[in-house]
Amino acid sequence: MVKIVSKENGKSVYDDQPNAHKKFMEKLDACIRNHDKEIEKMCNFHHQGFVDAITELLKVRTDAEKLKVQVTDTNRRFQDAGKEVIVHTEDIIRCRIQQRNITTVVEKLQLCLPVLEMYSKLKEQMSAKRYYSALKTMEQLENVYFPWVSQYRFCQLMIENLPKLREDIKEISMSDLKDFLESIRKHSDKIGETAMKQAQHQKTFSVSLQKQNKMKFGKNMYINHDRIPEERNETVLKHSLEEEDENEEEVLTVQDLVDFSPVYRCLHIYSVLGDEETFENYYRKQRKKQARLVLQPQSNMHETVDGYRRYFTQIVGFFVVEDHILHVTQGLVTRAYTDELWNMALSKIIAVLRAHSSYCTDPDLVLELKNLIVIFADTLQGYGFPVNRLFDLLFEIRDQYNETLLKKWAGVFRDIFEEDNYSPIPIVNEEEYKIVISKFPFQDLDLEKQSFPKKFPMSQSVPHIYIQVKEFIYASLKFSESLHRSSTEIDDMLRKSTNLLLTRTLSSCLLNLIRKPHIGLTELVQIIINTTHLEQACKYLEDFITNITNISQETVHTTRLYGLSTFKDARHAAEGEIYTKLNQKIDEFVQLADYDWTMSEPDGRASGYLMDLINFLRSIFQVFTHLPGKVAQTACMSACQHLSTSLMQMLLDSELKQISMGAVQQFNLDVIQCELFASSEPVPGFQGDTLQLAFIDLRQLLDLFMVWDWSTYLADYGQPASKYLRVNPNTALTLLEKMKDTSKKNNIFAQFRKNDRDKQKLIETVVKQLRSLVNERSSQRSL
């Protein structure tokens, strides 16, 4: 229901009035009637004007029809006249459209032409293998040109083709990198050789100074003609400098040997492509593989120096390339990477050198290996790689070098000993005398005063050995060069290696020589004389080393040469061998003895074998006059004691069952000759009858049997003043039993003679007493 609100007061017409609806309708009808009246008045007011207007329109109607006809006619005429214009206008419109289209095409083509030109340039760069430029062109196309023409289909084709081109560039650049890696693998030895030559060239000046310094102190090396020739050193230095000048002209740089452009291009390409990490990983992985191949030595590398040189040059070439890459590229390799690679390589190198050098038996090869290691270390040190472990390895190789030197010089010493005639060196004139003196520091005023011809006391082996010891010192010194060690350390190394030569090699050769079967007594005597002179020459060897190193012998830590003990031990061995061979010779003569142990009467003269033995001993002891007195006396005493013991053993031999009194008397004649030989003083220096005491046991035993003085022996036994103090009861019993058996055999048919029966009874009585005495001594010893 619509709620009607009064305008006047804004209240609803129905509010608070009865029959409000009805009243409202009445008022509404009244209002309508009022409006109808007003409308009627207005229409009446305008009706006349409307009528007038209609009248006017009717008048105009005729004119309007005429005008219509005229307009229609005019329109027809215009239509006929405008047909040709319309045709021309359509042509003009069509031409204008074509012109507009042409202009649009030109504008679009002008927009596309730079794109096409850049793409054509890209193709040309790809054909010319200018891949880095091609990638830059692609960037320009994508960032600048393609957005202008992205709505065209040809542009979409180009856009789709660019990733393929990038992949092609990556593959091509990677192929170039592989070719580069293969090339540097093949040329590593040449690169390394060049780098090592450059390192040598850089050291030329310092090496020349070292040689000049050596010449300076070499001028004063005159210890008994132990001199380093100055002219020879100057010639060597001049020749060395000339070689260095020649090498300087031939030295090439690493860039001359290797074209690094593939690496640069590939690195730039991958950097532009945003894949630099992939390239770095691939490069490092491949180089590590190549490093393992380079570090793998040939199985026969130790046989020649060329094998070691090739091994070193390849390694140097590898790391020279890595160092170059490190400095000319940013991030491809880092210092941490090269250090890690070098530490890995260094461990492998040391292991390889330690293994292969152990097979080297030639000192010259070991020395060349040392020189190569020094050049190798100096070269890589110049490129910033730490090489201290290589110099530590050189000290191990130095010990091996000394071992090979010792083995070589052992052969040299053996040859010298084999060629020696073991007789004093004869000198017939002054020239020969000076030659010997120039080789060996011998000083003897008495010999100098003697007239020619004369003889040196030593044999030819002595100066030869002395010269070879100096040569050994020179050879040992060669290894110490370029090791960056002080003169004190070099002096210590020289002295220690020389001590090894003396105490081990020369001593062993001397001992082996002394023990050889063909070395006789005369040779042994000469060996003792030789060792005496070699021992005296040791002080000159010390002076020789001092002049080389300029280190005084008075320095606290200076090692002394052990020649004194070495040659003393050799002399003791030779002396012992003299005693042994002399005793063997005595045994040979004694074995020639042919006694008739059952003879009834002696021959009246000494046995022939014994006289030959005594004559031999006299001649031998004449040779011993050149030996020190104590040695000759000891040899003489040892020979007499051994002869006495051999004769005693002959009497007491268990295989000898019977001995007659005639045989005892004959044996006594032989012992008398021995005593006469001892009393003749075959070797001077014995006091009184010292040498005769060697036969005292035999003498007392034979006197006991010759005078048959058993009562005195038994009565005085055990007394300090006993006449037969040296006679052992066992010895007397053994010999008496053999004589008892002989008496029984000889008296089978003469047992009824009173004298023989008495003698037999006396022998039996003495035998019983001796047995009782022996048993008593045995019981006392057991207690």
Overview of this protein structure:
The chain has a two-stranded antiparallel ribbon with strand order 1-2. It starts with 19 loop residues before the first helix and ends with a helix. Among the domains are: 33-135; 255-385, 5 helical Cullin repeat like (Up-down Bundle); 404-423 and 459-576, Tetracycline Repressor, domain 2 (Orthogonal Bundle), CATH 1.10.357; 595-601 and 613-781, Methane Monooxygenase Hydroxylase, Chain G, domain 1, CATH 1.20.58.670. The chain is rod-shaped and about 230 Å long. The protein has helices at residues 20-127, 131-145, 153-202, 204-218, 230-250, 254-257, 261-272, 276-295, 305-328, 335-357, 363-382, 388-419, 430-439, 445-449, 461-480, 487-515, 521-536, 538-549, 563-591, 608-623, 629-651, 661-679, 696-707, 710-716, 729-746, 754-782, and strands at residues 425-427, 454-456. The chain contains 26 helices and two strands. The longest helix has 108 residues, at 20-127. Helix 9 runs parallel beside helix 11 (363-382). It is an all-alpha fold and 783 residues long.
Quick synopsis:
The protein has 783 residues and is mainly α.
Question: CATH H-level name of the domain at 595-601 and 613-781... which superfamily?
Answer: Dsl1p vesicle tethering complex, Tip20p subunit, domain D
Write the CATH architecture name of the domain at 595-601 and 613-781.
Up-down Bundle
How far apart lie the N and C ends?
Answer: 167 Å
CA-based shape: rod-shaped
Average pLDDT, all residues: 82
For the biggest β-sheet, the strand order reads: 1-2
Category from helices, strands and their pairing: mainly alpha
**CATH level 3 topology of the domain at 595-601 and 613-781:** Methane Monooxygenase Hydroxylase, Chain G, domain 1
Count of β-strands: 2
Oligomer: single chain
Helical content stands at over 70%
Function: Component of the exocyst complex involved in the docking of exocytic vesicles with fusion sites on the plasma membrane.
Keywords: Exocytosis, Transport
Pfam family, one: EXOC6_Sec15_N
Protein name: Exocyst complex component
